Amino acid sequence: MKIFHFFGDSVTLGVNDAPAGGWVARLAGKAAAAGLQVPPDTFYNMGVRRHSSAMIRERWEREFQARTIEGVPSFLLFCFGTVDMAAPRGSVNIPVGESAANARDILQKAKEYGAVAMISAPPVKDREHCARLESLCTAYASVCAAVDVPFIDIFHPLLEAGYVDDLSDGVHPGAAGNEMIADALMQAAPLKDWFRKNEN
Known about the structure:
The chain is built from nine helices and five strands. It is of the alpha/beta class. Helix 6 links the parallel strand 4 (115-119) and strand 5. Helix 2 crosses helix 8 (175-186) and helix 5 (96-110) packs parallel to helix 6.
């Protein structure tokens, strides 16, 4: 048995793909087809709308601790940054350096609890917002290398694959986009190992 914990914002929550549960639920289905035992293996989606890296830093640990079972391996995945790089009032919500520092704090602590991976934020339609997310992707990759946590870049593959065409509001994917995210994550080496390795 394993427990997977997904922390993020509204993109992780899957707000435009409610019937199917967003990319987290789609990923669970694909992982089960690849060998994960669902059930009893469990996926928890802890995405929260409009949550920045700072908000996730403040909440993730207590939410994680409420969903653990003694003796059961935990896998913690973090996907955020879209809110940080938004600039609704003309200035970015959280600068890249501060966002990267938040990520470092989260990942260093999370490693105490189980296997950890960070997933880049996906692209958005607005060009300036998207450019900031690309810079953040680079910064997060550096943080992950420094703290020895796998970094999964979905930003660039999704951008090249036309993912932004499925963003009806410019930010949140529908069925096609969430399927693309789940497919990209199934190709990520650390997740393949986590999903296909069964514990009895």
